[in-house]
Each structure stands twice: as C-alpha cells, then as structure tokens.
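<derive_structure_tokens>
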Amino acid sequence: MKYLKYLLIFVPISIFLEYSHGNHALIFLTSCLAIIPLAGLMGEATENIAIHTGPRIGGFLNATFGNATEMIIAIFAIKAGHAEIAKASIAGSIIGNVLLVLGASMFFGGLKHKLQTFNQKASVNSATLLLFAVIGLAIPAIFLQSIGPAQELNFEGLSIANAGIMIFIYLLGLVFSFFTHKDMVCGEHCEEHEAKWGKKKSLLVLLAATVAVAFESEFLVGSIEGVAKSFGWNEMFIGIIILAIIGNAAEHSSAILMAVKNKMDVAVEIAIGSSLQIALFVAPALVFISLILGKPMSLIFHPFELAGIGAAVLIANIISQDGESHWLEGVQLMGVYVILAVAFFFAPVG
C-alpha cells in the first residue's frame, strides 16, 4: 500500500480532465489509476475499524465491506444503464481473485519458499460455499436457455428469489466462521493485530475514500463507451478484465505480500474469501440496489462469464484439498487466467 499511495496524484488529474471535458481514454486511464490507491485506503481503514470493534464484529465488517470498491463501481454502471458491464465486473472479480490473485500469490510465495501450507479446513469450507454460489448464478441462465425465446419467464422475480437465498446462505456462512465453528476455520488471518490508526482517523479516511471512489467510478463509467469505440474493445472485456483488476488491485498486492512472508493462510483467505463475498453478497445485493435505482438487474450472466467462473471455482476446489502450494501451481492458475482474458478480448459480444 505504501507505493500505491503515490497513485493518489491521479485523483486531481482525473477530476480536472472530467470537468474540462478531456479525452475519454485519458479520463478512463486516470480514473482507473486513482481508484487503485483509494480502494487500498478503504480496505486499510476498514481493517483498522475492525480491530477497534473486536474480532467478531471486526470479522463481520471485513467480510461485509471488503469489496466495497467493486460494489460502488457496479452501482454506477447500473445507474448509467450498463447492467451488463456491472455483471461482467462481478464475474471478473470472482475469476480474477481465484486465478490471478491466488496464482500470483502462490508463484511469488513459492519462489521464496519451496512448499507453503495453509488452513485446509477453512479453504475447503470457502471453496464449497463458492461452488454453491456458482449454482445460484448459473440457474437463471440455464432456465433462460431451456425455456426458449417463445415462452416468458419472470426473470426479475427469479433473480430476486435467488439473490435473497444467496445472501441468507452468506450470512449463515459468517455465523459459521465467526461464531459456531470459529476454532475450526480460523487461521493466521484470525490473529489479533494492533491498529495503526485511531478509530476517528479510520472513520474519516473511510468516508473520504468512499466519496472519492464514488466520484471516480462515475468518471470511469461515463468514459467506457468512448474507450470501447476508440480502441475497439468489447464492453465485456472492459468489465470482466480491466474493471475487475482495478477494483482488486490493492488486494492483489496484499495477498502477494502475505505469500512472500510465508503467510499463505492470509493470501488464500484474501483470494477465495473475496470471491465468495462477491458471489454470495455483492452480486445479490446489486439486484436489490438496482430495484431501488429503478433499473432492475437480473442475475442472468453471459455463458462466457459462467464458463470462466465455473472453471475458476473448480480449480479453487481442487487447489484447496491438500492445504499445500508451490510456484508451479501459481503459474498454472495465472496461465488459465491469461487464456480466459484472451478469449474475452476476442469474444464477439457488445
């Protein structure tokens, strides 16, 4: 996070470009670079607040607000009428966390440590919940394909029902992890740490960073169409690869740093736990938020997106079985991510 803070210079630059009606590509680039350190500040502030509130409430805060940046970006995309981009960024975050973040962590950690271990029970529990999330995300799309265009289906009602069930399961997962089975799933990430910031400073930083991310997200979303036309990129690629990487950049660096320090428990929890939160909480929550905005978003994902999510979750379940990792596993995970990224780049979708 220390080096990411230098990117804060792009906050005033992006604001100047936006209000002076600058080039869309420059607004998009500077907004992306500005969001990276702001997301890191939001995460750091949340962690400090969590330390002040105690392990149980703190764990809940981290589990609830750990992906606030992704949610804010998606909300502004929905507000601007880009629901498909919002869903693509959600799918991209799930795929990126499992394949890119976990892969990079295993690779760089494995270069320094021949064999690394992590909490097998905790990772298997998270990977299993993630598998359930994939089922919840896939069912609406399967129904759409099975009934055909000649018949009608209440997709809004189906999405709302699925979203409610998924959030309920997510909350039960939090109860399982932080209350009833805390000793079973707790690893190094459950250790108590000393807060770097006071409670007041943490709250102020969180508030300021959240407001700044909201502004930057609006700039970012507003420039997507211009960037897509200028560079010939399809919007699915922008959402599933670029926006997802931007929203998760701070987590990327944190996970890799923990792996290099031989704290794979923490790295695995950041990657798989974050994907789980996005799939079971952020995506369903956006369904309800979209209703409030008056622009309903369904939970029907593109088959390409579901294929990518399914592949990532399958790998997560396989990787988590033995509780061990090495650098070659990291290369394999990143290799799959690059293959998917290339496929999304050439995908014939708008």
Q: What stands out?
A: The chain is about 80% helix and 0% strand.
